[in-house]
Amino acid sequence: MIIELIIKFLKFGIVGLSGTAIDFLFTWICKEKLKWNKFISNSIGFSIAATSNYILNRIWTFESNNPEVSREYLSFFFISSIGLALNNLFVFLFNEKLKFNFYLSKAFAITLVAIWNFIPNYLFTFR
């Protein structure tokens, strides 16, 4: 059981790294190239990454065969949406209040939110 949990967490982390790359790419495009608000850009990057992460976690990490894909996706996205709120809160605190670089703040936020995302998805979405 513990070994299985560790393996799932490692897979979740690998998927999360791919999601981080997607998140940063779309955030950068929206913020730097399209000149959109940094929090809107952050939300777009996070949402695209969350969808990618759901697909990869369903197939690879949790090997889900749940026929209720839309319910499973909505659960995953709901948890990710709470993660998005936390992500924006952490970016705000680190960047606006502590004056860290925006992208360093985003990296810290992603790390903290990854822990949040794994636990309820393991316990509820992909049980």
How would you describe this protein?
86% of the residues lie in helices and 0% in strands. The chain has helices at residues 2-33, 38-61, 69-97, 102-125. The protein has one domain. Helix 1 packs across helix 4, helix 2 crosses helix 3 (69-97) and helix 3 packs antiparallel against helix 4. The protein contains four helices and no strands. It is globular and about 40 Å long. The model has no long low-confidence stretch (mean pLDDT 94). It is mainly alpha-helical and 127 residues long. It is a multi-pass membrane protein. Keywords: Membrane, Transmembrane, Transmembrane helix. This is Putative membrane protein.
What's the structural domain tally?
1
Which oligomerization state do the chains in this entry correspond to?
A: single chain
Structural class: mainly alpha
Order of helices and strands: HHHH
Hey, roughly how much beta strand do the residues contain?
A: under 5%
Please mark out the parts with pLDDT under 50 across 5 or more consecutive residues, or reply none.
none
How many H/I helices?
4
What is the residue-averaged pLDDT?
94
Give the number of DSSP strands.
0
First-residue to last-residue Cα separation? 13 Å
Largest sheet: none
**What general outline do the C-alpha atoms trace?**
globular
The percent of residues in helical segments reads over 70%
Q: What is the rounded Rg?
A: 15 Å
SSE layout:
Elements: H1 2-33, H2 38-61, H3 69-97, H4 102-125
Helix pairs in contact: 1-2, 1-4, 2-3, 3-4
